[in-house]
Design goal:
about 260 residues, alpha/beta, 8-stranded mixed β-sheet, two-stranded antiparallel ribbon, 10 helices, 10 strands, about 40% helix, about 25% strand, globular
Length: about 260
């Protein structure tokens, strides 16, 4: 009788310990998180991914009490082309355009892209008016939201010289393939410096948009996961750690990578 009572108490204790453990927000197939190099949101440093979006995602996973998934880095054009697959996938950082928010489930975070048209300083006198801009070739990443914005502003597809990634676009621009380049200003400057060029050689001819950034999830991701992710993100962003993280990457006195 005493042995049975001891066994029963041990069993109850085990269940109690189990119930006190945090329960993961999602127990299905792991969500694949895909990104690309867009500093200061995502960039490599000594072989390790750094940036606001990376640190934010890690903090959210900690809050959700799930194992940190691996990041996959690949060009945006490839990511968006195969986004509607059967594999639960999240793309980030993504510009949360109206069309994307209608098509996908989006979770915003407090960061944005400053989209501009840039030229070499030696050429800036050639581009005083919008008409001069619209008569010139502009290098842009294929399938980017920037291209759609330019078309809405009256630019024509015949203006565009495409690259598969921001890095590819910058290399074309540095070689003189076109006098203008467009996209996220911080990312263009970062990639320009990464190929041994001076950022001070570039000039922002025109700022064309500021786009809200965030995470977008495909239909293979359970709604319960998206809701848990959004809740955890809100908590993290409003916490002392979240605010410190934002200051660390977006302080006006801090040079971007």
């Amino acid at each position: 009788m005493q042995l049975r009572l001891s066994t029963l108490l041990s069993t109850i204790l085990c269940y109690a310990v189990f119930l006190l453990q945090p329960v993961p927000a999602h127990c299905g197939e792991p969500v694949l998180f895909i990104t690309e190099h867009v500093p200061p949101l995502v960039y490599p440093e000594k072989g390790v991914l750094k940036g606001y979006s990376i640190e934010l995602a890690k903090a959210v996973w900690d809050k959700m009490n799930i194992a940190k998934p691996n990041f996959r880095v690949q060009p945006w054009a490839r990511s968006i082309k195969y986004f509607n697959s059967k594999t639960p996938t999240c793309l980030f950082p993504a510009s949360l355009t109206t069309s994307r928010c209608k098509k996908y489930r989006c979770v915003a975070f407090p960061a944005s892209y400053k989209i501009g048209i840039l030229a070499h300083k030696k050429d800036k006198a050639r581009f005083i008016t919008d008409a001069q801009l619209k008569q010139s070739r502009i290098i842009t990443a294929r399938l980017s939201s920037t291209m759609k914005i330019l078309i809405q502003l009256g630019f024509s597809e015949k203006n565009f010289d495409y690259g598969s990634t921001v890095h590819a676009c910058v290399k074309k621009f540095a070689k003189g393939r076109a006098p203008l380049i467009t996209g996220d200003v911080a990312s263009i400057l970062y990639n320009y410096a990464s190929i041994g060029k001076k950022r001070s050689n570039l000039y922002v001819i025109k700022n064309i948009a500021t786009l809200q950034q965030g995470f977008i999830f495909n239909n293979a991701v359970p709604q319960s996961y998206v809701l848990a992710f959004k809740k955890a993100l809100t908590t993290v962003v409003n916490s002392k750690k979240g605010k410190a993280l934002h200051r660390a990457y977006f302080s006006l006195n801090k040079p971007h990578p």
